[in-house]
Amino acid sequence: MTSFPKVSKTNENDGPNEDNTPAPTVPKSLRAAQPPTPSTQEQGGRHMTKMNSKMGASEGVKASYRRERWRSRSMSISSNGSISSRSSFSSDGSASDGEGDDVNPRDIQQETSSGFTDFCIRNIKLHNFGRREIKIAEEEMSALMLLRTKLSTEKSLAGARIVICTHVTAQSAVLIETLVACGAEVRVSACNIFSTQNEVAAALAEVGIPTFCWKTMTEKDFWWCIDKCVAKSDTADEAKGWANMILDDGGDLTHHLYKNYPDKFNSITGIVEENISGIHRLYQMSRANKLPAPVMNVNDSVTKTKFDNLYASRESVTDAIKRTTDCMIGGKLVVVCGYGEVGKGCAAAFQGVGCIVMVTECDPICAVQACMQGFRVVRLEDVVHYADIVVTCTGNKNVVTREHMNKMKSGCILANMGHSFVEIDVNSLSTTDLSWERVRSQVDHIFWPDGKHIVLLAKGRLANHCCSSIPSFIISITATAQALALIELFKAPPTRYKPDVYLLPKKMDEYVASLHLTIFNGHLTELTKEQASFLNINRTGPFKTQHYKY
To answer: Among residues 482, 462, 475, 465, which one has the least CA distance to residue 247?
Structure first.
């Protein structure tokens, strides 16, 4: 294994108040920032009427359009709290939704400032905004940056050609650029049609990283982008295929390669998968003796399971719902479907803000755990008619069916936090008796004939990824594990790993955690030789067996 770096031990109004008491005095220096009074607005309206009459009808319409466009931008930014959460940027540097551009990026030719053209994204002019997003993420991902500093000098991935299919966000960009700094060549596509940050994709392309993705691309575009990554053949390795490593999130890339380019696996030395859906598919292939290459299972590593699944869900689920709906969550009745690590995080988050939380679960062990935390374990069909929010966290399919949605009350919010985008049967909503209304990015209102509507987030895909609300620190933990797993598979002797699914070595798991412990100024207790001998372990770890449950 590669040697790793050592870790050091008034809201104020201008008018009178409702009870006729004098209003607070506003300093002159701040008065310019106060919202205009109704009289001022009326005067502005009269002024614009006069201006329109002077400019003529066409110029007046243009001025009106400019005012409306600015108003929509302002509302979009303020309701977000963060421009990048739901907005991208138009070519003139202004905020926009990213969905209004009807031109398919496949139909236009773009190039970077250096003349690089091997990419397909929404708008290369957004790269400056994307670089700022990446810089912000790097501040919170200091452990991964520390790993980059160490391994980039060793060029641990020199000669590696990695095809990547992941969420193209500022956080994943830090991982991608870390792999490049370590000597790897990469080609990048997105694993989700909604989660791409267009400005980040532009930033990656600007520095010469082949990137093929954009926010809200179609399913057809999704597979085309993956194909553009795996079908590169303008090298001397044309006969074998360009790639020799795969970094996947969900298994789509691996299965696309297996189905359409099986011969290219002759050159693949390893696959790293960090998604439960992808791991399930790979285990199925392994049991059928169809697995074409060794797989490192990052999803079931302790750092991924505990931090990414549990703590990231706890941090992001309420944030994603608030960002997209602007609703108050406290006091709502929430049904969390599934009480695995993701479900535990979601239930804890809703409980923490004062919600009434119920849990559905098929596993009796998880069900008892939910009961011991004070949650009522129910069947969805028994409570769905009065739930305010329903969140799926199972990784299974058809957890919420059309029959369930027919029973939901008007205004019920439906979101998916599980790794499978088929948990909510969205296809059953594509019937003539229902109508869809897009109210904002990633938010659809679906109307029933009687006037009832439900609020669907991200069309049933991962709500937190689609709404950019996962903490960078959490992504750093998983990204560090992914980087180390790629290095391990790439550097390992050919006989060490056979075509099978392997768990991340415990020593590597503990190393990932130790890197991030320094961020909290935490200090580990060192075992004495006598203590280590008593436990029959090494003083420096691993401290737990591979099957230990944390």
So the answer is: 482
Nearest to 424 by CA among 415, 436, 432: 415
Q: What is the pTM of this model?
A: 0.74
Query: Does residue 446 lie in a domain region?
Result: yes
Q: How many CB atoms are located within 10 Å of the residue 457 CB?
A: 27
- The tally of domains found in the chain comes to 2
Q: What is the pLDDT of residue 84?
A: 37
Report the distance separating Cα 15 and Cα 24, nearest Å: 9
Per-residue confidence (pLDDT) for residue 30, from 0 to 100: 36
**Tell me: the pLDDT tens digits for 343-372?**
999 999 999 999 999 999 999 999 999 999
If one counts every other C-beta atom within 10 angstroms of the C-beta of residue 529, the result is 8
Q: Which of 54-68, 101-115, 322-336 has the least mean pLDDT?
A: 54-68
Provide the 3-class DSSP secondary structure of residue 461. coil
User: What would the two tokens of residue 424 be?
Assistant: 């909510």
Structural domain contains residue 74: yes
pLDDT, average across residues 106-121? 95
Asked if 303 and 341 count as a contact pair (C-beta separation under 8 A), the reply is no
Does residue 364 form part of some domain? Answer: yes
φ and ψ at 111, to 5 degrees?
-145, 155
Band (pLDDT 50/70/90 cuts) for residue 23 is: very low
In a domain, 420, yes or no: yes
Q: How far is the C-alpha of 197 from the C-alpha of 171, rounded, in Å?
A: 10
Dihedral sign (CA 315, 316, 321, 327): positive
482 burial via Cβ count (<10 Å: 0-12, 13-18, 19+) = buried
534, with CB counted inside 10 A (0-12, 13-18, 19+), is exposed
Quick check: 332 pLDDT over 90? yes
**Confidence (pLDDT) at 70:** 33
Q: Which two tokens stand for residue 26?
A: 């506003």
